[in-house]
Design a protein that fits this description.
By secondary structure, the chain is an alpha/beta fold. It is built from 13 helices and 20 strands. An eight-stranded mixed β-sheet has the order 3-6-2-1-9-11-12-10, with helices on both faces. A four-stranded antiparallel β-sheet has the order 13-18-20-19, sandwiched between helices. It has a four-stranded antiparallel β-sheet with strand order 15-16-14-17, covered by helices on one side. Bound molecules: adenosine-5'-diphosphate, aspartic acid and magnesium ion.
Length: 408
């Protein structure tokens, strides 16, 4: 018995039958003596459909109006689910982001939660109501609706769990938990019983969309007891926590793929000190995040620098660099958006030599060329051609889970 925050994703609330299923899960939890706050996403592909509708009317619509539009999907879900719960005879109330005091910064489309004024929540919970909250949305200091970025309902749920000191935050989705790779892509991917916040954060940041990466960051910061599980099967899910039992083993915990990436190469830069500073400070000023960076050894007084950015930033980054071609002194700019980043993640790899080599061997055996490499203590990422990315994930996964045995 306690306070439980539950979050249900788009597939879990896609139609009437599924909303009724969600209403059943919520009311079962309530009947067991818990207070329940449930965060819902928009139904099915609603958010994508709204994006398409907007693009038909104005492809350059302001971000404020986009947020006004996109936030409507979640409002439909919470009101319909509240009706389903009313029909089951339980006390319930649905609340939008602003009603629940979800304060964010001003950044439309990718807002950060700054504070939650929880008076309304406290008042509804003290009346023993089930509270349904629209995910993915908040309100900024101009009283405008903001959204938290794609997949942001996970972050709404974790933020509510943190501020309410919930005993548990359950993220219900369309798979049984966090797997060693996307189970839709890798048929023999294994479900993890538990995973550390740090590994989950890397996996989410590197493309495993099962959790919004900022939700994991927040869960770690506020020590939220987090669980990912299916709204369909009732199977035990994956616990995300600070320390897990198998942490000492040398292993990787998963393989992830990110297609939202593009590569730029500045060819024939002058081999002088300060060039990297000039290039990357220019991009930083425009808030363009740079990921993997590769600089070639200088020859004949010139060198090349390649780096990756989010695909959505490619056009802006390219235009910016072309504008400064003379000042930066490069010969040519090459860009490619047919690339993808494939990564392995594992807290154990720091003490386990040969992990990167194993990954590269798998790619070599499959004839997949590596364009760029980047490593950290708990991950190795490679940039490959987009058309080979799925296969890269599959061969890397099978190499590791054969090489190191079935670790978890
Ligand atoms: P929701 O709508 O419930 O938020 P998402 O589509 O955002 O669901 O996330 C769930 C999906 O994440 C799964 O259907 C799965 O295809 C994908 N996924 C990618 N990597 C992983 C992984 N390592 N483990 C589990 N699911 C993953
Ligand atoms: N509906 C939003 C999206 O599709 C938020 C979410 O589902 O988490 O990105
Ligand atoms: Mg999601």
């Amino acid at each position: 018995m306690g306070l439980i925050v539950q979050k249900f994703g788009g597939t879990s609330v896609a139609n009437t039958e599924r909303l009724q299923n969600v209403a059943r899960i919520i009311t079962e939890t309530y009947k067991a003596g818990n207070d329940v706050v449930a965060v819902l996403s928009a139904q099915g592909d609603t958010t994508d459909e709204l994006l398409e509708k907007a693009a038909e009317i104005n492809p350059r619509a302001s971000k404020r109006e986009m947020d006004m539009l996109l936030s409507t999907g979640e409002q439909v879900s919470i009101s319909l689910c509240a009706m389903a719960i009313e029909a089951l005879g339980f006390p319930v109330i649905s609340l939008t982001g602003w009603q629940v005091g979800m304060k964010t910064n001003r950044t439309y489309g990718d807002a950060r939660i700054t504070r939650i004024d929880k008076d309304r929540l406290d008042s509804e919970l003290s009346q023993h109501k089930i509270v349904l909250v629209a995910g993915f949305q908040g309100i900024n200091r101009f009283d405008d609706v903001t959204t938290l970025g794609r997949g942001g309902s996970d972050t709404s749920a974790v933020a509510l769990a943190a501020v309410l000191h919930a005993d548990l935050c359950q993220i219900f989705t369309d798979v049984d938990g966090v797997y060693t790779a996307d189970p839709r892509l890798v048929k023999d991917a294994k479900k993890l019983d538990e995973i550390t916040y740090d590994e989950m954060l890397e996996l989410a940041t590197l493309g495993a969309q099962v959790l919004h990466n900022r939700s994991v960051e927040m869960a770690k910061k506020y020590a939220v007891n987090l669980e990912v599980l299916s709204s369909f099967t009732g199977n035990p899910g994956t616990k995300v926590k600070e320390v897990v039992k198998t942490m000492e083993k040398s292993h990787i915990s998963g393989v992830a793929k990110d297609k939202n990436i593009a590569r730029l190469a500045l060819v024939g830069l002058s081999n002088q000190p300060g060039i990297a500073f000039k290039v990357f400070s220019l991009l930083a000023k425009e808030k363009i995040n740079v990921d993997i960076i590769l600089q070639s050894i200088g020859r004949d007084d010139t060198k090349d620098i390649s780096f990756t950015v989010a695909r959505s930033d490619l056009e802006r980054a390219g235009a910016l660099l072309e504008q400064r071609k003379e000042a930066l002194g490069f010969k040519r700019l090459e860009v490619s958006d047919h690339v993808a980043k494939v990564s392995i993640v594992g807290a154990g790899m720091i003490n386990s030599p040969g992990v990167a080599a194993t990954m590269f061997e798998a790619l070599y055996d499959a004839g997949i060329n590596i364009n760029m490499i980047s490593t950290s203590e708990i991950k190795v990422s490679v940039l490959v051609d987009e058309s080979q990315a799925d296969r890269a994930v599959q061969v890397i996964h099978s190499q590791f889970f054969r090489e190191f045995g079935q670790q978890r």
